[in-house]
Amino acid sequence: MIMSTYTVCLYTQYSSILSFLHRHVKQWASTLGEYVSQWVDYQLHSKAHPQQSYKVCFGLLSLNKVYSKERLNAACQRALDTGGYRLANVKIILKKNLDQEKREPKQIDLLADIKHDNVRGQNYYH
User: 123 — phi, psi (to 5°)?
Assistant: First the structure.
């Protein structure tokens, strides 16, 4: 079956199902926590069409059957902080209990206040 992502080409029934799915995913994510909601929002907006992200989002949301809301939210926070936007990254964080570890605070850039042509700062190398 060939599917179109153009809304004008969709049947009205299929179009309403897609809008329902979008609302459902966002609402479900918001009940699990702020960072889960941010991770899902990133997934929905990172693809050309939100329909391409539904499977990944439902995969993340189904982890709520195994892990608590707090752990899932902490894992999404860690994934967002480290750039782990794949579902596999969140699963690894949960499996290895990295969501429960204390993280070191972000290092302060000591060279930020120095204004000199030879001093580039920490952002130059990353």
Answer: -75, -20
